[in-house]
Design a protein that fits this description.
Strand order of the largest sheet: 61-62-69-64-67
Structural class: mainly beta
Number of strands: 69
Organism: Electrophorus electricus
GO molecular function, one term: calcium ion binding
Shape: elongated
Pfam families: cEGF (PF12662), CUB (PF00431), EGF_3 (PF12947), EGF_CA (PF07645), Ephrin_rec_like (PF07699), FXa_inhibition (PF14670)
Keywords: Calcium, Disulfide bond, EGF-like domain, Glycoprotein, Repeat, Secreted, Signal
Distance between the termini: 15 Å
CATH superfamily of one domain: Spermadhesin, CUB domain
CATH architecture of one domain: Sandwich
CATH topology of one domain: Jelly Rolls
Subcellular location: Secreted
Helix content: under 10%
Largest sheet: 5 strands, antiparallel
Strand content: 25-35%
Length: about 900
Amino acid sequence: MGPLCMTRDFCLFLLLLNTRQSAALPHAPDADQCAAGGDTCHIDAFCQNTQTSYKCTCKSGFKGDGKQCEDIDECDAEHNGGCVHECNNIPGNYRCTCYDGFRLARDGHNCLDVNECFFNNGGCQHVCVNTMGSYQCLCKEGFFLSDNQHTCIHRSVEGLSCMNKEHGCSHICRETPKGGVSCECRPGFELATDQHGCILTCNHGNGGCQHICEDTEHGPACGCRGRYTLQADGHSCIETCAVNNGGCDSTCKDTTTGVRCSCPVGFSLQPDGKTCEDIDECELHNGGCEQFCRNTVGSFECSCHKGFKLLTDERSCQDVDECYFESTCDHTCVNWPGRFECRCNRGFSLYGLAHCGDVNECSVNNGGCGHTCENIVGGFLCHCPAATRLHWNKKDCVGKMAGPDVCGLHGAKTGDTLKLFSFVCFLCFLFSVIGGTVCSHACCSAGSREVENVQFSFVRLRCVSSGHRARSRHGRKADEEDGSSITAQFQLDLNPEEVTADSCDLACVRRRSEKRLRKTLRTLRKSINREQFHFHFGGSEKLARPGQPAGQCGVGQVLIDKKCVSCTVGMYHDTEQGRCVPCPAGTYQDEEGQASCVACPGLKGRTVPRPAGARSLAECGGQCSPGHFSHDGFVPCRPCHRGSYQPERGRTSCFPCGGSLVTKHEGAASFQACETKVQCSPGHYYNTSTHRCIRCPMGTYQLEFGQNYCVSCPGNTTTDFDGSTNITQCKNRRCGGELGEYTGHIESPNYPGDYPANVECTWTINPPPKRRILIVVPEVFLPVEDDCGDYLVMRKSPLPNSVTTYETCQTYERPIAFTSRSKKLWIQFRSNEGNSRKGFRVPYVTYDEDYQELIEDIVRDGRLYASENHQEILKDKRLMKCLFDVLAHPQNFFNYTAEESREMFPKSFIRFLRSKVLRFLRP
């Protein structure tokens, strides 16, 4: 019973699989002999091209082998073409006609009486009476019908003459030479034996019969064509459902008065009582659809905007959370209604819609550094030459002055054992530390003044778990066996003016400083071992312990809608209030998720407004604006001299335009203000040596006019050509995908962004024994206009003549699913040098070959292609993952509840596949 249950559960789950006809492309046919006129088909036959030749088929209404065709006589005596009156054979067809007094019914076969009295009273002067196949004029009292059978004559003459109302003739009265009268009949009637009455024959109005008329001695006898019934009046024929469905478009029911037509749900019966017309449900309240309503024949279908999916009620739309998968974005994924947005950490730029690459800040104007620029992952560093130091703006180099020196302390911890402590002296001073080790710097030359009175002022701790280690700009990467790493940075202010010769000399200050530092290190060591840390945030004591209770967030985060959200820039996490608050005036915070704010640089006696909530150093206030400078970067400031510019705040100098170029005015804020000899367009930069515009080389781009640099592409990306104008043209050329034994996918380079030009990728799927491959192509965008320069092919091996499963060089936005025609699959994607289109992602799953018949039955059914909502299933990464998980391992079906399955897929999809699964399960 176990295997049977597993089979049943697996198959029931396959109700959720949405696929469509296998897409193996046929081989190119031979020359089109039909189009070339080289066929031998009869003139009344169709020529149809085949793989190797052509075939002839007689047209409808003809019979023969295609090489010889002759007309079929549908009007043979036995069937009369189904016509109730006359059948006229024509080449390849036939046409029914009716006798005078009748008209052809809508079905093209039956004949209905024409009511001549409806038009101009039938031409009668007084009264018109309609009869089957004809009509009759009557006169009012005191009048009799004239010989023309339409006008009426007043009876006023007595005697034996035709003017006497008692002449006794039924139709026409004639006076004889002897003064008597004789009677005659209208055409189609015969004079009765009494020489006065007229007997109707089949020659007039078909004898009053609707279908068949036969003359007898008592007058016409009426009959009906096959499968019609003679009514009680003996003249009319009632339609039956056996004849052309009673003329009904849909359902026909026989009644005593004839057929009764009805229509299925989604159609309405028209006034003719026969025709069914589709109801456009979308006209009324949009069909009940929340977003889009599309009318279909006999029904309608709701659909949603891109970025939304249809719920199981098949009316409502719900936003698709693209951020459900962590792999959606390299760094941060932000879900919006109907869309999502990928964001990158500071120091990284977005490319390929979802990926983040390190920005080479040094490629743009040397990073703004006054001396040398060093690019590092996620940022950059400016370096200064000897005898100078880095300004607080981290870019300018200024003269070395007595003041604060900085040491950095780095520690790493494994378990309860402190493995490493080391000092790095960033500025020039001589200091003795633990164990007699001397911290020195190359710039510490003999005779350099030693600093005194070291005071503890700032400590910053950063804990990184083993699963999220990152290389710090000033730290080291912990060994793989390390459980976590802790980096502490100490800033020590040294004030030589506080040293007095009578109280404490230089050696005394050094000893005191060493004692305080050793005490600090002992405290830090104990905190590390106990995993408890005391902090000073916002002027209050804080204690940090490992671990967070369920439902709470870490430092720098608050709980919003059951999610931990980091405090944004310009704010910090106030643990006492339990919320994010703006940075106080005089501080700033340019990082998210921080528990404190950073003090703005001092102005030394100058007072400027300090706004609260500053998000960067530039918002602290008091700094020189772009186009200006000062000796310390603060007000008062001077404008950049003519021939120079400064694009940043708080700088101590301006950049020269170079090449003897000048600016029109002082205070220029960019190179674009320099009066160049030619205006460079985007994709170019101005060379100040040659005074020419140079195309940006491959791997760089320039978005603006009139710049003197090109921006390097982020990370490991490059451009297809030189002269690029946008970062979107930076692409990763690495072939993507994950190839697993059971599930996996392939990705074009730079997916989900545009794939690069002139690239080639190959993948090989080799499933385990007794397993087959199912592939889904949600969509693919390949330009067809360049003779298939870009193509995607799937076949058994790299050999061109091997079995091919799929091959395309066109764009298909509608999904497709198919099984591999070979046990293993070799896949190749190639683009030529002239194209780049939207990238693609093709998932696959390997399944037990025992289910081959069922899978083939599903993927080869073209009806799956009819519903847009079914197609969206194949484009939904989350649903495809669920489907593939169960296809690969049927026992995973039990990981999903019945309610979850119902909520995932529309009812129409499950109803459509139920018959296939039940048929597969039936013994």
